[in-house]
Here is the input.
Amino acid sequence: MRERHLSRLDSVRQAAEAVAALAEGEDTEALRVAWLLVSLESAHTWIPEAPDPPASMDQEDKELRDEAFRLDLAMITAREAVAERLAYHVINEAQPEDPEMCAEFECPEGCSGRHDSSHIDCGPDAVYEDLAQHGITVNQPEPEPLAPLLKALLGKAGAEGTGAAEGAEARRSPLADIEERASVVLEHFGLDAADPDVLLSAAAVGLVYDAWREGPLEVIHAADDGPSDGEVFAQSVDLYRRARAALVAARDDGPEVLSAFVAVASDVDLTWAGGSVFRLRTHSEAVPEFVRHVDDRVWFTAEVMREQGWRAGLLHRAASAAFKAPAHFGMPGWRNSVASAMERLALLDRSGAPASLADLGAVQAALLEAPDRLGADALGWISHETLIGFDGPEAVAHLERDTL
Here is the structure.
């Protein structure tokens, strides 16, 4: 009974993935896509309840739970793909022969008037205005407040008020005056914004921290079946290199290539770096929120680059890194952190430590060049001894208090 149930879950999951792929393509007509979703939902509804194991078996069946979770994710993906396809199909079908939208989108000569999600962007606030036309009022979320120190630093960069023209520009741009304001923050923390290599590395650290490390990953990390400190440390180093490569590519190929970083950072089937066996797929709690969080943060960086240029996107994330992760791998402060950690490590009893920590010279070289080379277990041991690590958001509060 168990094997039959697993087979049903797997078959419907494969069907959901196929429906999503057809919906995202252009070869299948919209009406057919709609019927595919209807038949998929029917198959999903007809899946029977999971069989109850006999008393002699362990009640916690991890494989059944994981397969059910994989199916849920596949169904969400299929529904979203079909919904997007049909929404834009309805909009396009309702357009006149000479659509007004083409002028707004600055479409090329001879445009058919057909648009998809890559053309239409109403912004973050339009939905509240649209709902108000139907008599529905939703309170708009307030912007997340800046930490006191960062707010004080940014306040030094300009006057308190703005004129009407400046206010309009601020609404148009994701981050107004980013060049001036971010430079103030970077200078305060000892980073040279005029050094392209320093700026790029800091931006990569900030992108990893903002999009991957903070937020839902904290919930996943704290869970009983979550990754260890060493696994988080090792994976953050690997993602730093990927983020740096994606940011370099974005300079020449446009911000769209940042999606390559998203694909890896949010991959639920990816085995983490440093010899880890952890995969997000095995941890259901907060994973959908985590995936959305990564996509949203990287999307914002891409929007800054589109509106204000590649350097503006780097300045935004670099300023974040300067405040949140000033001594992380990739930051100028990393070398001093390693030197301090090595002094303390030399004094510790390492008889129970992983074998990769025996040769201090090799340890120092690995920490400076590629910490994940030491392995997640060794990085976990180092983190546990509070020698060095990739601190979570709780460390930012300590940093802020110390700096103030």
